[in-house]
Amino acid sequence: MREWLYDVFRERPWWMSATMIFCAWMAFVYVPWDLFVKPVARDEEIWFGIEFRGLLAKLAALPHWFVYGAAVHGFRRRRPWMAIWAPAYAAQVAFSIFVWKALETGGLTGIVFGFLFALPMTGLAYAFWSRRDYFAPRPLGLVARYGDWALVTGASSGIGAELARQIAADGMSVVLSARRGDRLSRLAEEIEKASGVATRVVVADLSERDGQAALLDGVDDLEIGLLVNNAGFGYQGRFDLQDGERLRRLVAVNCEAPLVLTHALARRMCERGRGAVLFTGSASGHQPLPLHAVYAASKAFGLILGESLWGELRAANVDVTVLEPGSTQTEFHAVAGELPHPGAEVEGVARAGLEALGQQPSILVGWYNWLRSNVASRLLTRPVAIHAAHALMKKQTPEDMR
């Protein structure tokens, strides 16, 4: 519990933490009670100094619920939009108090009372405005935090290639690994010209244990401060129609290789007292996915492993985060045998993962993926969630593989 409290309240000014606690109380205790327990006849809500009663008050509580919930999330995750949201909301509350008190008391006395009662919230609005830099995007600072070298698997394309570019742009030298050496060489040349850092190419097939060992041998002389377990692939279709050897390789690349590499390199990070591991997982790891069963299971493995290591290795100053994108604009769909469908931009996905390092054990990229994953796992029964997922995956699966 003490570690959790440290995570929640570290670096934040006390008055900002107090505001977050108040917002959490309103979002998780008071507003739900107000909406679902408090009698309609007794209900009161104030917006911009105007008092609502009865059913209108119940309806007015709904946006209040959203406001306080969003504020808790913004404070907790230090979202940039809070730089405007926080002072604007505090100023709105100050204005509401002023108008409400002025109208209630009336006359010049009401204006004076309204001004005096609004002063604390006016001061809070000014404090938030003065400290809006707290919510500004922070530089990654990977070299200072983790060291000079990063290892990125699956770096020949997609999210892996973009992660390598962004890591190099922040100043870390990068080891690039995948099966396609020609692509890795081109990427290494691009990175060296663009970022001025050193690169190393290690061609390895992580579906084989010899390939996993070859990669570890290829970085044995380097202090790897950041390991990015990005290599992985999917395989769309009904389980009994799929090729067994390809399924074995999928599990080896998605599960066994990250386990082997992390176990070998995290030991050295713990000895040095700093380092980081980033797993590229998937929103698919949050629920069963018929027609993508083994892939979803492999990503569930990575999610549980990564989040567990976040709890274990933090004492050694080693950060662990699982990056969980949904559909992304890469060659993943074609390789997995999926029908084409829209996806997120790879640049934003990669950036989200790197920014989450040291901040949280996992990150679902995109509000839709967050909503879909949480609704499926927390609000629906297992049979309903599975049937809904099956219907969705059918639309992305060729007919001969359904």
Describe, in short, the structure shown.
The protein has 402 residues and is α/β, with parallel strands linked by helices.
Can you tell me about this structure?
The model has no long low-confidence stretch (mean pLDDT 91). Helix 7 packs across helix 13. The protein has 15 helices and nine strands. With 402 residues, the protein is an alpha/beta fold. The longest helix has 29 residues, at 244-272. It folds into two domains: 10-133, no CATH class; 142-401, 3-Layer(aba) Sandwich (Rossmann fold). The strands form two sheets. Strands 5-4-3-6-7-8-9 form a seven-stranded parallel β-sheet, sandwiched between helices. The protein has helices spanning 2-9, 14-36, 54-77, 82-105, 107-130, 142-146, 158-169, 181-195, 209-218, 244-272, 293-313, 332-336, 346-356, 367-379, 382-394; strands spanning 44-47, 50-53, 149-153, 173-178, 199-203, 224-229, 275-280, 318-324, 362-364.
**Count of structural domains:** 2
Q: What is the average of the pLDDT values? A: 91
Succession of helices and strands: HHEEHHHHEHEHEHEHEHEHHEHH
The residue ranges in which pLDDT falls below 50 over 5 or more consecutive positions are: none
Q: Cα distance, first to last residue?
A: 47 Å
CATH superfamily of the largest domain: NAD(P)-binding Rossmann-like Domain
Strand order within the widest beta sheet: 5-4-3-6-7-8-9
Could you name the CATH class of the largest domain?
Alpha Beta
